[in-house]
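Listing S7. Sequence submitted for prediction.
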Amino acid sequence: MVEQEIIIKNQPDCILPKSFFEGRFPPNIHPDSLDWAEWWDEQERRCVEGWSDGGYSVTGPYYYHMNLKKINMLNEHGNPTFDHPWFAYEDQQLFNDVQKARDAKKGLMLITGRGFGKSFAAASIAEQEFVFKEASECIISASTDFFASQLWSKIELGLNSIHPELRPNFLRKKMDYRESGFAFKDDDGVETIIGYLSKLHKVTYDNDPGKTRGTRPNIHIFEEVGSWSGSAKLTDCYDQTEASWWRGKNFTCFPMLIGTGGQMKQGGSADAKKMFYDPDAYNLMAFEYNGKKVCKFVQAYRKFEGFYEKSGV
């Protein structure tokens, strides 16, 4: 295989070894060669299992987030651009917490200030599951179509930016639904369907808290829980879906709730606040703060856009 120098143009002083960014730079070799296939097999393995080098390690979803997709962001000059995400310690910690929650068979609620990048992180978690987990099912939900569509568009942006070698083919593609796979016919006209057959759903609860009953998601994301509106309350949507996250005694789903402080005066945050301060009651990952159990909270100053070092600290 031809060796290629890895130059991280948008983050030259990152504390991670350069091998953590190799997925951004496919080697300059023939696409029909065995070396080409093996290189992409290794990238897929890292996206599934994670990657370690020089005493540092990242989870599979975070390796995917840093290497295979691009996002709307600001460059080092403060100008809008479409590029791979910068490494940031807070992002790495978030993806580590996601893995811990999944290993513990719990969900995760994340409350931060604006501009943290939590929607792109949640999008990457759903994308990685959809692309690399066979027969997986992911639900992207919100109280209004505006918020659901905002996250849905980020997921589409991420999937479309994946290199064609790993980008999924859509067997079915609708406004609020995606299914991966291929359909082809043999010489006798018999159709065969192959592929992972993974599913992505966009759901707007609005006034119906039971819209996702009967599903079997691997991942269920609730977007903008701090601004939940409509007659379908957040806790009702959560409670009426929870039975779908269990198969017998096995908790088989990872629910993730993300948002900011939200509409405190209008009451849109009441349910989110209730869940935030009582994580055990909702099977959410608990974090200790001042001796009390709460959900995950990151102060706004911890990751102001453009204010953390190029090293990622």
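Caption to Listing S7: primary sequence and predicted structure tokens for the chain studied. The two ends are 34 Å apart (CA to CA). Residues 59 and 295 are 21 Å apart (CA to CA).
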